[in-house]
Amino acid sequence: LEYFRDKQKYPVLFVLGANKSFPIATSIVRFLSEIGSIPQMIVIGIANTKPIRDFTINRSKKIPNSGGGPRFIRFLREELVPEIEKNYRTQSFKILSGHSLSGLFSNYVMFSEKSLFQAYITSSPWFEWEDRWFLKLGNTFFNKHQAIKKFYYFSMGDESLLKPSLTSFREMLEKGVIKGINWKYEYLKEENHQSNLYMSMYNGIRWLFKDWKLSEETMDKGLEAIKNHYKSLSVKFGYNITIPSLTLNDMGYRLLDQNKINKALELYKYCIKLYPEFWYAYHNLGYCYQKIG
User: Tell me: the pLDDT tens digits for 217-227?
Assistant: First the structure.
């Protein structure tokens, strides 16, 4: 992992219900980042021993232990997130992922907390809680708490119980009742409530970073085109994104295979400027000089 080889900062994925979700999230992030489809990320799993207490905002008369969501939000905002930012090299771009009841919680956080997280991935959010309490918050709530410049992926499987409420929320997004969100909805008819967790984590992360991967066309245009690619990503995600060291190294190999020695030389010099401790670049720079003579 590049985290242990450089001094760069990384976006963070916070995964609720980590007992099931954490191994899924880490395997997906590892695989997709290794093939260059997404950035490497820090993944934080949050295990919840009492999900009904932690993930419900309003107290149910039928369930006395419910309604602890506001306190759990304070824990995220005032304790957990600051602790992670203090102890790890984190970027300002943070993602919150939730499934079922924690998906409902994530949706509420998206509106109630303007800057805590910048992206949300929710699978089968349980909008049925307390007779569709979340949807009944109404236009006044959503207009007051505009989710400005947020990325939002949500989905459901073959779940007839959830379909009416998720359809209503999707229509609110389509009609512009809720503004400021870059969103995508998927109906995954081959999945059920449980299996949708895995597929939505994968699809949601892929959708969020759909522009991340360098195309061969961009690579063939050279270093300036690659710089521009990452500049556009920086604008999209709201933080400075430098070209990963391994991406530069792989691009150098590509140029060497094409016998474009001078361009490879230029690229490895730039790589050393960004990553002075990345020894692969020095090795390959020496190879370039050897080829030039």
Answer: 998 888 899 99
